[in-house]
Amino acid sequence: MAQLGRSVLITGGVSGIGAAVARAFLADGARVTVLDRRASPDGEVVSVEGDVRSLADNERAVAAAAGERGLDVLVANAGVHDGGLKLLDGDPAELEARFRRLVEVNLLGYLLAARAAAPALLDAGGAVVLTLSDASYDVHGNNAGIAYATVKHGGVGLLKALARDLAPRVRVNGIAPGGVPTGLSVADSKGERPVTSDPELLTRRVAGRTLLGRGADLDSLAAAYVWFAGPGTAAVTGQILRVDGGLLA
User: Fold this and answer.
1) Which of 71, 111, 128, 130 is least enclosed, having the fewest CB within 10 Å?
2) Does 118 score more than 60 pLDDT?
């Protein structure tokens, strides 16, 4: 149990990838806190309800996770999708609304989480793991529209800047999933809705384009986060691991 007794904070940790990562860290002996808009149903998890776009909410979550023993790992994971909206699709006002929301959640949210957690992570010599995407490399990845492709490419730049700014005490790496049925929501001007009504169909379609005939399942994907946060990657920073069945190989 490499994470035994360590404290982990996960943003967007109540569902999808975040919930799977929380379970994996718990199984490895960590203390897990999640920041999400709703409380976690998992009684082993410390839940902080809040908005990742708020520095104050991120700071509350860091305080809850750190307690008197400090914070060892930040997983910046909360995110929303644009529903595949292209530049010339529909109303320009809708394009603007989705673009702003994705920048605020998927980029600003990561930045604020890192800023809030940085002092505690520097004290601990900890680690940061960002959730990226196959769309961080391919504008067609994860059925991306212009906003999702842009912010996920931007996440790569943010990761590299954080790795520079937090060195040498804190390692910063990322996971780029592909073909994972996560329940990711589309954020539009009317609120949020599921990306697809049939996540398994989407998974099968992606699997047909991979070298291994499958994308990542949530459990194997979560294991990659635990590995990146552990002692086996003590000399690794500024790197991104693609967990996608060879989708972009």
Assistant:
1) 111
2) yes
Structure tokens at 17: 């990838």
Q: Is the dihedral of CA 155, 161, 166, 168 positive or negative?
A: positive
Q: Which residue matches tokens 């010599």?
A: 125
Active-site positions read 148
Q: Give me the CATH code for the 7-243 domain, please.
A: 3.40.50.720
**Pick from 182, 226, 173, 181: which is nearest to 24 by CA?**
226
Nearest by Cα to 143 from 181, 91, 100, 190: 181
Give how far Cα 212 sits from Cα of 21, 81, 132, 223, 234, Å: 23, 26, 21, 18, 29
For the four alpha carbons of 201, 203, 204 and 208, in that order, the dihedral sign comes to positive
Q: Is the pTM of this model over 0.90?
A: yes
State what percent of residues in the chain have pLDDT above 90: 72
Report whether 155 contacts 107 (CB < 8 A): yes
